[in-house]
Write a structure and sequence with these properties.
Blueprint (H helix, E strand, L loop, with lengths): L7 E4 L2 E5 L10 E4 L2 H9 L6 H18 L7 H15 L7 H19 L6 H35 L8 E5 L14 H10 L3 E7 L6 H12 L4 E4 L4 H7 L4 E4 L3 E3 L4 E4 L2 H11 L2 E5 L5 E2 L16 H4 E2 L2 E2 L12 E4 L6 E4 L2 E3 L1 H16 L1
Parallel strand pairs: 4-5, 4-7, 5-6, 7-10, 8-11, 10-15
Antiparallel strand pairs: 1-2, 2-3, 8-9, 9-14, 12-13, 15-16
Helix pairs in contact: 1-2, 2-3, 2-4, 2-5, 3-4, 4-5, 5-6, 8-9
């Protein structure tokens, strides 16, 4: 049976993250015992992927709360600490909206508990917060499996009953980027589980090589048919071989469907449009930011030049050369066939209305 990959290990009061910088050669688990450990794990990209970042941040706060149990004299003390914790963690990486949404949701819960009279029992209030953060783990896995099912259905729509899909994906959006199963790679995984995956081509994803180090690792460990290709080979692949669809993840999706994802995604979408290949974005509703009108409003993180000029400390470019190293780019909505969520697949033009409807239903 194929090994199930996980990006973190959690028990109440204790968190470990798989140091993804060292994969696939070494499997090293780093302890996260405090806010600074969590901040560094996210900032240094030991853990990455928008859903996983939010979950690790939440569980970091949960660990701190559990280890500080008994030190909060009043509800106000607890509220102040939770606000401080999330304020600090949100400075780790600016583009992935899941982190900020988790912070917003859990801060609202904290304030709601305090205002509801829970200040009479600070320990109970703390326990409720910790349980809410822990619940994010199971919800993320369930959401990802739903994304996989919806995405597989969309890819296979109109295909012969016995046909198999040839997929292309970028960066890493699998179990290592989430609490488990994956978003875009979850679609690939769902196709494989249904016996409908012929092959998944994964790009190397320079400069951090998440595709080569992580996606290729997931494909081989979990016995899915995969082929690693250079980032620069995608156009040639589509011109010489059949590709059913491209599926990628997202770090933030604007109200109009414009999508920020790992650098190199935009050029994949342009090439896919030229070759008539369907292009899907797979992301949970937590990644959709209706406060942003378009992708022009998304803040794009820029990473240090050293990450572009060296691989694992080994220089590959002249030290004196200038570098521009954006971590993400924005794919415009007109290039996207559909956005795959846990609630279904939506055309970018229909995204905002559907998200508003779903969120309003969840509040009623």
């Amino acid at each position: 049976m194929a090994k199930a990959l996980v990006p973190l290990k959690y028990t109440r009061g204790h968190l470990e993250v798989l140091n993804q910088l060292l994969l696939p050669q070494d499997e090293v688990w780093d302890d996260v015992t405090c806010l600074e450990d969590g901040w560094q794990a996210i900032r240094q990209m030991k853990v990455r992927g928008a859903p996983a970042i939010a979950i690790v941040a939440a569980l970091t706060v949960a660990v701190e709360l559990e280890n500080r149990r008994g030190t909060f004299a009043t509800a106000d003390d607890l509220v102040k600490f939770v606000k401080h914790a999330w304020s600090h963690l949100c400075t780790s990486r600016p583009t992935a909206v899941n982190l900020f949404r988790a912070a917003d949701d859990l801060l609202k819960l904290t304030e709601k508990l305090a205002s509801a009279g829970e200040e009479q029992d600070v320990q109970h209030m703390l326990s409720v917060l910790v349980e809410a953060m822990e619940a994010m783990l199971e919800k993320d896995i369930a959401d990802n499996k739903a994304i996989g099912r919806w995405g597989a259905e969309a890819v296979l729509s109109g295909a012969a009953a016995d046909s198999k899909a040839v997929m292309v994906t970028h960066c890493n959006t699998g179990s290592l980027a989430t609490a488990g199963y994956g978003t875009a790679l979850g679609v690939v995984r769902a196709l494989h589980e249904q016996g409908r995956l012929e092959r998944c081509y994964c790009t190397e994803t320079r400069p951090y090589l998440q595709g080569a180090r992580l996606t290729a690792y997931e494909l081989t460990v979990e016995d899915m048919p995969g082929t690693l290709i250079p980032d620069s080979a995608v156009a040639s692949l589509m011109s010489t071989r059949h590709v059913s669809a491209i599926v990628v993840g997202a770090d933030r999706v604007a109200a109009n469907g414009d999508t920020a994802n790992k650098i190199g995604t935009y050029q994949l979408a342009v090439v896919a449009r030229h070759h008539g290949v369907k292009f899907y974005v797979a992301a949970p509703l937590t990644t959709i930011d209706l406060s942003l009108v378009s992708g022009k409003d998304i803040i794009i993180e820029e990473r240090p030049p050293s990450e572009l000029k060296a691989i694992r400390g080994q220089p590959i470019a002249p030290d004196a050369i200038d570098c521009w190293n954006p971590a993400f780019d924005v794919t415009t909505a007109d290039l996207i066939t559909g956005i795959v969520t846990e609630h279904g697949v939506f055309a970018p033009a229909d995204l905002q209305a559907n998200v508003k409807r779903i969120r309003s239903q969840s509040l009623s």
